[in-house]
Specification:
Mean pLDDT: 84
Number of strands: 15
Largest sheet: 5 strands, mixed
């Protein structure tokens, strides 16, 4: 999609700045420009324009809506909530509204920026490659342009210029290798006001001439020249001039990138909280059936700069999503990176169980790859949880809820899991929350069992859970507890007599097992053989 559509615009600007009261049936209606209404001049033909009803009360904007329709405009923006919805629907024109206190010039600037950036999307970095070639030809060395995170944005392709392995690896991965020496060199470059000569970062590497790129004191990136011994005498001057041009190009590219990222980020965020227009989102993404994957840094790990590391994790997830699907739908929320993974045809397309399993395998493999790559790159363990596939984007919140629950179950032994793989544990986790909130569900014999163990040093709780988990088989329970079967039988009899528990009653067994497993948290502490038998009947 090359131009801006009404759906795109709402995804970028959206509520609360701009509210949509009614729209044409097609969310792909084009939006070409934002025009300010001039009451002293007739409306010009302006197909796709949005008309800002400056000086017109919302309730009196009916004639303006009709005139906008005749001029081929896509919509009218009014101030207030009582706009002419019926007339807009009759004439097939979108009706949008802003708050009473919002300034028209602010709305015009916001809409014009959003429309212009969307229309220009895709060409932001092309001029940086041309600049890299120009600098390389002038100074006599291979050039790369990087952002503040050492991602390679552009590089020269002038033939015959010497390069080293570090440059090759940086270009192949579009990321400068993350090591102490490189980080120190970057620090030196950004600490300097001009070009800096740097020694080789590796024994077989080549020296560098580098300069930071800034705008108003804000670092935008850096330009690096490989010094193969043939740099021009005025290389420093040429590089400084090139950095000034790079600043302008980086500002323009960043504006486009940031708005595009805002589009995707805001759209995914609103899908995850259930406030997005699912139909418009499906039109924009080209997906409808999806699964939510959640990635997070291991909370037990020591991370000096968790916020920065989480942003780098977001970059890894974005890169992998783009490599597999040609685009990404990712967002960082409260330290968790969420990604929408498409599952085309999974629902409603007659897919077989084998085909559904293939989708699961692909998604799981992707999550495992990200966990492995991110763990190596960030030097922090990463966990990944995958929710259930949902047939429509309107149900993304359900898949996110699945993923959030699975995240709470992950550990070193289980760094990646799909919700269906841990469904029993998820169910028990939800049961524990419900039972803790309801007094009637949290009362019962389990409290007497724990109190007896504390007061008398007994081991009734673990024995009962091991017996329940073993399907009420004393031999298996005794093996799990590493005690003699007679010891296990004695403990069970004593628990029944002393604590008033009827272990012959299947309902009482079931309730006690659930309470000890969920409320007392004795699921794994019992050490029972979880594969030997199902829970007690």
């Amino acid at each position: 999609m090359n131009g801006c559509t009404l759906g795109d615009l709402m995804n970028v600007v959206g509520s609360p700045a701009l509210r949509l009261h009614t729209a044409p049936a097609d969310p792909s209606a084009p939006v070409t420009e934002a025009l300010l209404y001039d009451p002293h001049a007739p409306l010009p033909p302006a197909p796709g324009a949005l008309l800002l009803a400056v000086g017109v009360r919302a309730a009196a904007a009916g004639p303006l809506v009709r005139a906008a329709a005749q001029a081929g405009m896509t919509g009218v923006v009014v101030r207030g909530t009582d706009g002419p919805v019926d007339e807009a629907e009759t004439h097939g024109v979108a009706l949008l509204a802003i708050d009473e206190e919002t300034a028209w010039h602010h709305v015009h600037l916001l809409l014009a920026s959003a429309i212009g950036a969307r229309s220009a999307h895709g060409g932001g970095l092309g001029d940086l490659f041309a600049l890299a070639d120009a600098i390389a030809a002038a100074v006599g060395g291979a050039v790369s342009v990087e952002d503040p995170r050492q991602r390679v944005l552009a590089y020269s392709t002038v033939p015959g210029q010497p390069v080293d392995e570090e440059r090759r690896q940086g270009i192949l991965g579009l990321q400068v290798p993350d090591d102490v020496e490189n980080s120190e060199q970057v620090r030196l470059v950004f600490a300097s006001d001009g070009p800096v000569w740097l020694p080789p970062a590796t024994p077989r590497g080549l020296p560098r001439l580098a300069i930071a790129v800034r705008a108003g004191g804000e670092p935008l990136g850096s330009v690096w020249v490989v010094d193969g011994g043939t740099l021009a005498a005025d290389a420093e001057k040429t590089l400084a001039q090139g950095a000034s041009t790079a600043a302008l190009l980086l500002l323009r590219a960043r504006a486009t990138e940031e708005l595009t990222r805002h589009q995707n980020t805001d759209l995914v965020r609103r899908l995850l909280d259930g406030s997005a227009d699912a139909q418009a989102a499906a039109h924009r993404l080209g997906w409808d059936t999806v699964r939510v994957a959640a990635f997070v840094l291991d909370s037990a790990a020591s991370v000096p700069d968790a916020e920065r590391t989480s942003l780098r994790l977001l970059d890894v997830v974005r890169l992998q999503c783009e490599a597999r699907y040609g685009q990404h739908a990712c967002v960082l929320l409260d330290g968790v990176v969420y990604a929408l993974l498409p599952a085309p045809g999974e629902h409603g397309g007659g897919r077989t169980p084998q085909e559904r399993s293939a989708v699961d395998r692909r998604h799981r493999q992707m999550a495992e790859d990200i966990v492995c790559r991110a763990g190596r790159s960030l030097r922090v363990p990463v966990r990944a949880a995958l929710g259930e596939v949902v047939p429509h984007l309107a149900e993304v919140t359900d898949s996110r809820a699945d993923a959030d629950l699975v995240l709470r179950l992950l550990n070193d032994a289980l760094p990646v899991a799909m919700v269906d793989e841990v469904r029993p544990q998820v169910t028990l986790l939800l049961l524990s929350e419900v039972m803790r909130e309801r007094r009637a569900l949290s009362a019962g014999a389990w409290r007497r069992v724990l109190a007896a163990d504390v007061d008398h040093g007994s081991d009734y709780a673990r024995t009962l859970v091991a017996w329940f988990d073993a399907g009420c088989d004393v031999a298996r329970a005794a093996k799990a507890l590493s005690v003699h079967p007679n010891t296990c039988r004695y403990r069970l009899r004593q628990a029944g007599r002393q604590l008033g528990i009827d272990l012959e009653d299947p309902d009482e067994r079931l309730v006690l097992w659930l309470q000890l497993r969920t409320l007392a948290g004795l699921g794994s502490a019992a050490g029972a053989d979880r594969t030997a038998a199902p829970p007690p009947p």
